[in-house]
Amino acid sequence: MKAMIFAAGLGTRFKPWTDSHPKALAIVNSKSLLQRNIEYLQQYGIREVVVNVHHFADQIIEAIEKNKGWGSNIIISDESDEVLETGGGLLKARRLLKSNEPFITLNADILTDLPIDQLLAFHDLKNALISFGVTNRKSSRCFLLDAENRLCGWENNLTGEKKISIDKENLHQMAYSCVSVFDQEVFDLIPQRGKFSLTDTYLSLAADHLIYGYNCSGGKFIDVGKPESVIVAEKMFV
Question: What's this model's pTM, rounded to 2 decimal places?
Answer without folding.
Answer: 0.96
